[in-house]
Specification:
- With about 250 residues, the chain is of the alpha/beta class.
- It has a single domain (about 1-120, about 185-254), classed as Rossmann fold (3-Layer(aba) Sandwich).
- It has 10 helices and 8 strands.
- It has helices spanning about 40, 70-80, 95-105, 125-140, 145-155, 160-170, 175-185, 215-220, 240, 245-250, and strands spanning about 1-5, 10-15, 20-25, 45-50, 85-90, 110-115, 200-205, 225-230.
- Strands 1-2-4-3-5-6-7-8 form an 8-stranded mixed beta sheet, sandwiched between helices.
- Helix 4 (about 125-140) packs antiparallel against helix 7 (about 175-185).
- The chain is globular, with a radius of gyration of 16 Å.
- The mean pLDDT is about 95.
Length: about 250
C-alpha cells in the first residue's frame, strides 16, 4: 500500500482500476485487505480507493479525538489529494458508519452509497457501555480480546475465520480502542437517510451474527429507491465469503 502524510499521521491506501471513483471502506476491527476478493471484480468499472482507516492496517492514529466524522474527514482529505470532487462510498459494518457520516458531512461530494452488513441506528445505552468496556479490555489485554469474541461471528467458513483472525491480530491496540469509542458515540443516521437522492445499494446476509438483517431492512424502508440485496445463508463478511454477489450488487452504483 501507499501512504499520504496528513499533519500528524500516515494514511495508507491502495489505488487500482479505472473509471468512476469508488471508495471501499473496511469494517471493525479489520483493514483494507478484506476487499481483496472483490476489488478485481470491480476495477474494470471503477477507480478504486481502498484505505486503511486511521489506526488500522498501515495507517497510524494521529492525535485527533476519534469519531466517525474524523474518519469521514480523512476520506475527504484523501479525495482532495487525488483531485476528486466526488466519489461513491461503500462501507462494510463500521465502514458503513463512516460512509453515512461522510454523506452527512459532505453531501455534495458523494455520488452513491453502498452499505454492506451495516446499520444506521445509534447504539443503545447498554451497547454503548459495552463498547467502552471492550475498549478498556483491549487496552489492558490486547486485540486478542476482540479476535476471540468476534471471529466466529463473522462467518461459518473456518478458513475465512482464520484469515479474519490473522487480520485482527495485526491491528493496533490504540486504533481498535479508539474505534470502539468512536462507534459508541456515533450519531443516529436514520434521521437523514430520507434526504439521499443518489444511488444506494444495501447488501446484507440473512445469517449475520453481528448486525441483524432487520437493521438493513429499516434502512431500505427509509430509502425506497435503494437497491436491496439479501444474501441467503451469508454472514457478516459477504465481500470475503461471496465476492461475486457482492461485486454484482455494487455495480448497481455505476
Amino acid at each position: 500500500m501507499d501512504t499520504i502524510r496528513f499533519i500528524d499521521f500516515d494514511f495508507a491506501y491502495e489505488q487500482r482500476g479505472n473509471g468512476t471513483p469508488l471508495v471501499l471502506i473496511h469494517g471493525f476491527p479489520l483493514d483494507g485487505r478484506v476487499w481483496n476478493n472483490v476489488a478485481p471484480l470491480l476495477e474494470d468499472r471503477f477507480e478504486l480507493l481502498i484505505p486503511d482507516l486511521r489506526g488500522f492496517g498501515m495507517s497510524t492514529t494521529g492525535n485527533d479525538q476519534p469519531s466517525m466524522d474524523m474518519y469521514a474527514r480523512d476520506i475527504a482529505n484523501m479525495l482532495d489529494y487525488f483531485g476528486f470532487e466526488k466519489a461513491t462510498m461503500v462501507g462494510h459494518s463500521m465502514g458503513g458508519y463512516v460512509a453515512l457520516a461522510f454523506a452527512k458531512q459532505y453531501p455534495n461530494r458523494i455520488s452513491g452509497l453502498g452499505l454492506v452488513s451495516s446499520q444506521a441506528i445509534a447504539d443503545s445505552p447498554e451497547r454503548k457501555q459495552g463498547r467502552y468496556d471492550t475498549a478498556a479490555q483491549v487496552e489492558e489485554k490486547g486485540v486478542n480480546v476482540v479476535a476471540d469474541s468476534m471471529t466466529a461471528k463473522f462467518t461459518a467458513n473456518i478458513e475465512l475465520q482464520r484469515v479474519a483472525r490473522e487480520i485482527i491480530l495485526k491491528q493496533n491496540v490504540q486504533g481498535v480502542a479508539h474505534a470502539l469509542r468512536a462507534m459508541a458515540e456515533r450519531k443516529d443516521a436514520m434521521v437523514w437517510l430520507s434526504s439521499f437522492s443518489f444511488p444506494v445499494v444495501i447488501l446484507h446476509g440473512d445469517d449475520d451474527q453481528l448486525i441483524p438483517i432487520d437493521r438493513a431492512r429499516e434502512i431500505k424502508g427509509s430509502i425506497p429507491h435503494a437497491h436491496f440485496v439479501e444474501l441467503k445463508g451469508a454472514g457478516h463478511v459477504p465481500m470475503m465469503a461471496s465476492p461475486q454477489e457482492t461485486a454484482e450488487a455494487l455495480m448497481q452504483l455505476k
